[in-house]
């Protein structure tokens, strides 16, 4: 009880009040490491509403949906406070948060969402940046002020009940257990589906996406396929997620959408490595955000910034901006810190520091494609430690899930492809600063691939130490500055490969790599204005090779 009273006092005094002069000064000055965005915190009354008082039973069998929602409604209607989930296994259906409510899970509390799909009605929402019908999220709130989920308990979304899974992703015993649980197996024996509706949905193009004239009943035949995100807060202000374990989400785990003043602190997010779309957190079109001290071990991207997809995202036109991400750890994921690919509303003023990525597919992952549109700029990253990255430590890719142009053949330029005009659907990556980054193990240290009509540009990389199989590859990049880059590579390949890029500055390049391979491989007729100063690449290494129409004048090396 003393701990609970201390918690109430702490939360009641947690509001961060910005004096008018300070707020005005910050609004007028550009954001920087010395002038970070401010994120207001919620505060709550000490009044406590125990869900047991409203009839909830922690027996793991009783469905407590109505009792928990009654407790939340009563708390909000009486001015707010704490809705307490004591220790125990609480089975429930969808829970809807309300303003001025802090849903607090005690250390031994498990909020277990039911595997009965009928408890989750189809609702119109947003999925992967587009309007879509989905099953109602286990935890949700819309148009709320001052709301939180805190404590040390566990929220389990029962995602394994929702997800189809391939046999090759499970052990033999896991596969046998899955088949014995029900559902059905594909004719070739390679895929398990929870239900016939799931299988039908997997075979339906654009399943769930809102179509003209369609309503919820039109999607009933594929309902089970339309997996919900575990938590969705839509258009909420002063939101806090703190201390809780969120796990086993049917799709994305945490999805704040169009929120302002969002804090995610000291949470643990867990999903199986085979969980398709099992992202940790997707911050979409939000403003003033702090994600700190948290751990992610998930099936897709770890910490991800989004802002809508294609024309719908541009129509919304709300960037994710003023974000601080610090002191987080990401284990298995498709990317440790990610922007995209649904970033059509843009992203700006994002600060990432003091994070570790351990065994993720990619470390820093920035992805987009033609058709997205959206401007991503003013991104600052520092003090990042990575180990055992499967693919790229640092990746900028503007051909995400699309076919890139053919690589230039040795000695011969590839057949020219028409370059599209720049339109509102052309994405942009510019003005990134990445510094003090260490990676011990990756397939490739740095990969940049822009579009011919819109290069990746204005990127500064300072003080990088990367050990990888391959070094650096840049295609269609412009105005890139690399200072104090230390590379240790293993592959018998050029250390730095440049294709149709210009305005590249390398200063302080140190290389430890197999001998006999050139320091630079330059290709393409548009490669130009590449300078290298203070390079230490070891004796007997050729400075460069030039291929596919590249001129020897494109590169100047001063060792």
Any overview of this molecule?
It is a single chain. The protein is mainly β. The chain contains seven helices and 42 strands. The strands form four sheets. The protein has a 23-stranded parallel beta sheet that branches. The protein has a 14-stranded parallel beta sheet with strand order 4-9-15-18-21-24-27-29-31-33-35-37-39-41. It is globular. Mean pLDDT is 93; it is low at 1-24.
Helical percentage: 10-25%
Annotation, overall tally of beta strands: 42
Q: Which term fits the overall shape?
A: globular
Distance between the termini: 68 Å
Average pLDDT number: 93
The low-confidence runs, each spanning 5 or more residues with pLDDT under 50, are: 1-24
- Tell me the strand percentage band: 35-45%
Query: Which structural category do the helix and sheet elements fall into?
Result: mainly beta
Radius of gyration: 25 Å
Number of helices: 7
**Largest β-sheet summary:** 23 strands, parallel
Summarize, please.
Its EC number is 3.2.1.-. The protein is mainly beta and 559 residues long.
Task: Spell out the key features of this protein.
mainly beta; 23-stranded parallel β-sheet; globular; disordered N terminus
């Amino acid at each position: 009880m003393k701990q609970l009273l201390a918690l109430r006092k702490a939360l009641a005094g947690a509001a961060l009040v910005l004096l008018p002069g300070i707020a005005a000064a910050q609004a007028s000055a550009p954001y920087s490491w010395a002038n970070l965005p401010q994120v207001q915190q919620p505060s709550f009354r000490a009044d406590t509403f125990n869900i047991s008082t409203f009839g909830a039973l922690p027996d793991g069998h009783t469905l407590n949906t109505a009792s928990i929602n009654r407790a939340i409604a009563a708390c909000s209607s009486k001015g707010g406070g704490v809705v307490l989930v004591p220790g125990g296994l609480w089975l429930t259906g969808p829970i809807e948060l309300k303003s001025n409510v802090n849903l607090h899970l005690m250390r031994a509390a498990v909020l277990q969402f039911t595997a009965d799909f009928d408890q989750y009605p189809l609702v119109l929402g947003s999925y992967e940046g587009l309007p879509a019908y989905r099953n109602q999220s286990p935890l949700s709130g819309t148009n709320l002020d001052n709301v939180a989920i805190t404590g040390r308990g566990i929220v389990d979304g029962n995602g394994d009940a929702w997800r189809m899974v391939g046999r090759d992703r499970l052990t033999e015993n896991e596969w046998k257990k899955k088949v014995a649980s029900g559902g059905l197996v594909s004719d070739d024996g390679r895929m398990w589906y929870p239900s016939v509706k799931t299988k039908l949905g997997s075979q339906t193009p654009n399943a769930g996406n809102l179509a003209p004239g369609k309503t919820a009943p039109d999607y009933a035949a594929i309902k089970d396929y339309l997996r919900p995100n575990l938590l969705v807060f839509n258009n909420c202000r002063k939101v806090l997620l703190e201390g809780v374990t969120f796990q086993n989400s049917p799709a994305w785990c945490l999805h704040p959408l169009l929120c302002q003043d969002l804090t995610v602190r000291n949470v643990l997010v867990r999903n199986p490595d085979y969980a398709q779309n099992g992202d940790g957190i997707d911050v979409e079109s939000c403003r003033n955000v702090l994600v700190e001290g948290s751990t992610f071990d998930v099936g897709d991207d770890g910490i991800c910034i989004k802002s809508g997809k294609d024309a719908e995202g541009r129509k919304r036109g709300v960037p994710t901006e003023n974000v601080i991400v610090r002191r987080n750890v990401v284990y298995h994921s498709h990317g440790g810190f990610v922007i995209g690919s649904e970033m059509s509303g843009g992203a700006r003023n994002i600060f990432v520091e003091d994070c570790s990525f351990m065994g993720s597919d990619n470390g820093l992952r920035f992805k987009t494609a033609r058709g997205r549109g959206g401007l991503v700029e003013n991104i600052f990253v520092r003090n990042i430690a990575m180990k055992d990255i499967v693919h790229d430590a640092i990746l900028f890719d503007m051909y995400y899930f699309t076919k890139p142009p053919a690589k230039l053949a040795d000695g011969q330029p590839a057949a020219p492809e028409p370059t599209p005009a720049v339109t509102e659907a052309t994405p942009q990556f510019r003005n990134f600063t990445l510094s003090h980054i260490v990676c011990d193990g990756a397939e490739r240290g740095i990969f940049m691939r822009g579009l011919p009509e819109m290069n990746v540009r204005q990127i500064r990389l300072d003080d990088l130490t990367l050990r990888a199989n391959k070094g650096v590859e840049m295609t269609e990049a412009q105005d890139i500055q690399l200072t104090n880059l230390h590379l240790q590579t293993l592959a018998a390949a050029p250390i730095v490969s440049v294709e149709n890029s210009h305005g590249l500055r390398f200063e302080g390049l140190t290389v430890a790599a197999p001998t006999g391979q050139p320091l630079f491989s330059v290709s393409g007729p548009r490669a130009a204005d590449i300078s290298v100063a203070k390079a230490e690449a070891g004796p007997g290494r050729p400075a460069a090779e030039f291929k596919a129409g590249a001129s020897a004048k494109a590169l100047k090396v001063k060792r």
